[in-house]
């Protein structure tokens, strides 16, 4: 495979197929190719300020206690009035029922209104992002295929028709099947890693220490297996998506086709994945440069985002202010908080639109790499099969009776 031609053609298609730019923008919003956030963890995890927890213990009876790695917590199943849950905060232990009563006394009902509103809004945004992502993935892949077959650049309308189809649903199911299968396998293996912890049930401290040592020894190979699985799933998804989008195969048939190509053309497939992953990693530091270069434009988008985001915010404020009498402080501020939650997504969308637009072009380039490489990988696989069959036939003819 000529990777130079694939990369150069993939970049040319980004600029020639302008009708797909919107779908690249959506992909930048719903994947890691757009704007990203850097979280400062100094206040949350500081070795000098936060002590390591004592782990998780489950007290089965007076003589048997099972211990696990994790946050400081004790589950006591021997309490006469029912199971007790103790939670550690630094050097102090609190019973869960005490914390629950404290929350019920201190937290007003308006807080739960805000929490429910935020949860519903987050669920709607996640659903829109899920639909937008797979529709855009299908539109980009099938749009490039349409251009390769007809020589005509698809517009937004045709791209939407290509994306809003059963292909988008199959892409989602392929992603789901591969992720669930890998996740289930890794979970079973992790359970095997934790099996030595059952040695604590023997009432022997030496056996318990041996269980911790065995779990630790098994944990590192499991982590390595997780990394390899992530690479394999990432590679298999890209091939299976193209098998479904470009060939119209069903979910399981597409996964099987992707696995066959990866196995028979492992070298070229892995090199394609390395190139694709390199573009994703290179985009991370480049994003900072893009933000600096687009800073003057983003000043304008901040103002525009404030104006546009004020529309849903004011609508929400009017509705909630009418339905909530401002008797207490919480009732007075709750409509303003809900209004802020309603306008925040629109503000972020408009403010970071320049960065996400550039990220969308990068996302189109990355998708085009696989879309252009897939036919060559598939044709190489098909060319290899007759050669293998011919060699087997010659071998059978040369075998003496």
List keywords for this structure.
single chain; 401 residues; mainly alpha; 5-stranded mixed β-sheet; flat
Largest sheet, described in full?
5 strands, mixed
- Summarize model confidence as the mean pLDDT: 81
**Tally of structural domains:** 2
Order of helices and strands: HHEEEEEHHHHHHHHHH
Describe it for me?
The chain has helices spanning 3-16, 21-30, 96-106, 109-150, 156-163, 166-194, 205-247, 251-264, 266-293, 295-323, 329-351, 353-398; strands at 56-59, 65-68, 73-76, 84-89, 92-95. The protein has 401 residues and is mostly helical. The protein folds into 2 domains: 3-33 and 90-99 and 111-380, no CATH class; 51-89, no CATH class. A 5-stranded mixed beta sheet has the order 2-1-3-4-5. Helix 1 (3-16) runs antiparallel to helix 12, helix 6 (166-194) packs across helix 8 and helix 10 (295-323) packs antiparallel against helix 11 (329-351). Mean pLDDT is 81; it is low at 34-53.
Brief rundown of the structure:
This protein is mostly helical and 401 residues long. It contains twelve helices and five strands.
Give the SSE layout.
Layout: H1 3-16, H2 21-30, E1 56-59, E2 65-68, E3 73-76, E4 84-89, E5 92-95, H3 96-106, H4 109-150, H5 156-163, H6 166-194, H7 205-247, H8 251-264, H9 266-293, H10 295-323, H11 329-351, H12 353-398
Parallel strand pairs: 1-3
Antiparallel strand pairs: 1-2, 3-4, 4-5
Helix pairs in contact: 1-12, 2-4, 2-12, 4-5, 4-6, 4-11, 4-12, 6-7, 6-8, 7-8, 8-9, 9-12, 10-11
